[in-house]
Amino acid sequence: MTLNIFFMTITIKKREMGPEEIMDRERIRKITEENKNRQFSMYRPF
């Protein structure tokens, strides 16, 4: 009888965001919000 045991360690670290990445994410969020508003205004029921 053979018993194979495999041990694996997973480490999860919270990543620190720099000011450039925060500004980039905010810009993406604004663009996404503008696109949603534009889509809503185009497909609004009459």
Describe the structure.
It comes from Neobacillus piezotolerans. InterPro entries: YrzI (IPR012655). By secondary structure, this protein is mainly alpha-helical. The chain has one domain. It is built from 1 helix and no strands. The chain has one helix at 19-42. The N and C termini lie far apart (74 Å).
Please specify the SSE layout and strand pairing:
Blueprint: H1 19-42
Pfam family, one: Bac_small_YrzI
Protein name: YrzI family protein
InterPro entries: YrzI
Write out key terms for the chains shown:
46 residues; YrzI; YrzI family protein; elongated; mainly alpha; 0% strand
In a nutshell, what does this entry contain?
InterPro entries: YrzI. This protein is an all-alpha fold and 46 residues long.
Number of strands: 0
The unreliable regions are none
Rg from Cα: 23 Å
Query: What is the N-to-C order of secondary-structure elements (H for helix, E for strand)?
Result: H
Shape: elongated
Main sheet overview:
none
Determine the number of helices (DSSP H or I, runs of at least 4 residues): 1
Estimated share of beta-strand residues: under 5%
Number of domains: 1
> What is the mean predicted local confidence, pLDDT?
86
